[in-house]
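Filed under: proteins

Residues; backbone shape codes:
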Amino acid sequence: MGSAREVSLASLVDAFRNHARRQPDKQAIWCDGKSMTYGELADFVGRWSAAMDDRGVARGDAIAVLLPNSIEFVALMLVAADLDAVLVPLSTSLPPAAVYRAFEASDVRHVVGTTHTLEDLRSEGDSGHTPATGLWLRVDGALPGVEGLRGLLAGSRARRAGGREVGDRDPYILTLTSGSTGDPKPIVLTQRTKVNRVAAAVELYGITGADRTLAATPLYHSLAERLVLIPLLTGGTSVLMRRFSPSEWLRCVAEQSVTFTIAVSSQLAQIAECLREAGQSALDSLRCVVSSSALLEAGVKADLLDRLACAFHECYGASEVAIVTNLDPADARRKLHSVGKAAPGVDLRILGADDRVVPVGEPGEIVCRTPMAFGGYYKRPDLTRQAMWGEHFRTGDMGRLDEEGFLYFLGRKKDIIITGGINVYPADVEGVIQGHPDVRECAAFALPDTRLGEVVAVAVVPMNPSAFHPRALRFLCARELADFQQPRRIFAVDHLPRNSLGKVMKRALPEYCARASQGKD
């Protein structure tokens, strides 16, 4: 069951159970000092699945998940696949009102969470919100009126494998695209989509049952979900971090002999800095590292290529379409500013403002057709139609292709700065400023202007705040950028505001910089 072809032809749970039968004593998963073998995890999943079935959890029921990264979260993913139920993973940091909006958007019937999150939700439910009407289950502590996982499993026997219809085209996971504000927009991921994404990663990065795969991002995002499923469907071992810090990441890799991981670019930037400070040049167990989620700054990429004694890839993608491009180690140095070429099976195009494909080298919106695409937005056919260009998904990102087919990411379409009617791509400005030795990181964004509509502004995190002065950056920009690309405001800040995946929240930058105590140019 280790090949991409074999995995793609099996349901999630059947593939996992095959490995449990063949290697019951092999470590399946490790998280925060706890671990389970394949045999133990299969028994846990089987008993939990049977107990949920007994409590009336039916095929197609939506189960909200409010758990931190944990073995229980991963087991519940397999339970839902076994029951053909639908998981709705949510951040435990969301305020109760936002959680209930997600419930309504996703038709949530059952809830699994920690005692703390469920207690907060029950209080909010008493304030006029309609709670999910099915099973409420806590995995820890005690809460009157809410059943505990230990009690649920008491006396439960594992479901008998086989004899059930596999709903690989039915919704399996609904991933929410909005946070604590706005209208939630659930992305439909089917079992088939998840397995296809695992199979694509297996083939692209040469993953086998010998790999120990690390997930260090929140499990309510599709990246971490894919990373914990990869080893369980290929017979490897899943290593799951409860929360990320660069020092803990390095320790975890070393102690758990991690061989493969996909990390978000902001994590890798911190890891690279940690490696520099520690003077460590290699992590011996690592076979392959992939940068994901956001553009990895070229200087950080070059540094990692020098320090990591393993294959280093960068990919571009989105929750709706997973991996779109791959920059492999053979091209990484000569195409340092690119995010790679179209991944196998992906058709990549660049569209102009008239929705026509633009010539090579011209910027436009990135669209792609892929077998790893989502199943649309849940109960929002209008949004699904708007998101498509024929069979291609509109990413909402801007980029350009060179003559060899390498993609260069230019930023979100909505983040383009239009100054005096001319488009300025944030990545062009950031690429210049980030190269200055006084700059730790930066982000370009738009500020309103009465004369030009918008002007270019840049938030800069200095290497040495006490010695920082924007004059040197202005000289650099005057030399390297066109007139219309010149930053009109440069803000020195302590850090850049980021979401849980480490992406800079550019829409928050104007207000954030206005409040920054060092916001002077």
Observations:
- The longest helix spans residues 38-54.
